[in-house]
Design brief:
The protein is an alpha+beta fold and 182 residues long. It has two domains: 3-47; 54-178, no CATH class. It has three helices and nine strands. Strands 1, 5, 6, 8 and 9 form a five-stranded mixed beta sheet that branches. The protein has a four-stranded antiparallel beta sheet with strand order 2-7-4-3, covered by helices on one side. The radius of gyration is 31 Å and the shape is elongated. The protein starts with a helix and ends with a strand.
Length: 182
């Protein structure tokens, strides 16, 4: 290989290196332009205090059934925001005489969970808390399973009144606590 061949090879290599560098810089610029809005959106979402703050909603028990009384025999999540919705719910209830205590639907709404028919008579359910977070309300409940099974059927349910809101209501999967036998 002659000196002129080596010089040509060096020039070719430098041109190739410069071209690759320019291509790499151009690619990095486009990637930065594409990903920058995503980082800004994620940063804004992370810094938004409303997106990360959770607030407990005050709840007052209306009905908590533990034995034979229940408004439904099938498992159900219930959200009632008006007298009409309450009337329709009570019409399909197997217990036609069932009713909630008076609720002022201009100020309050009803949220409930019914476990449906259970073979253990002393099974109960409780709504532990309702949390507002990220524009929705989440209901957390616990099924309390008895240590000793009693021989009658129950339809455990718990209904609470909450301050009225148009936020969507989500029910988290309920937890099950089994009593320990002594």
């Amino acid at each position: 290989m002659t000196d002129s061949d080596c010089a040509k090879l060096r020039r070719w290599f430098i041109v190739l290196l410069v071209s690759a560098s320019e291509w790499l810089l151009e690619t990095m610029r486009y990637l930065l332009l594409l990903t920058l809005p995503a980082f800004v959106l994620i940063g804004t979402w992370l810094l938004d205090p409303d997106a990360t703050s959770a607030e407990k909603v005050p709840a007052r028990t209306l009905i908590q059934s533990t034995r034979f009384f229940s408004l439904t025999t099938e498992p159900a999540y219930v959200v009632l925001r008006s007298v009409d919705e309450e009337t329709r719910f009570l019409e399909i209830s197997p217990r036609k005489t069932a009713a909630f205590p008076y609720i002022d639907y201009t100020q309050e709404m009803v949220v409930g969970i019914a476990l449906g028919r259970r073979g253990a008579g002393n099974t109960r359910v409780s709504i532990d808390s309702v949390i507002t977070n990220a524009g929705q309300r989440t209901v957390y409940a616990t099924e309390h399973a008895p240590c000793i099974q009693q021989r009658y059927v129950s339809n455990p349910a718990h209904f609470v009144a909450l301050p009225k809101s148009n936020q969507p209501v989500r029910f988290a999967p309920w937890t099950v606590e089994t009593e320990t036998c002594r």
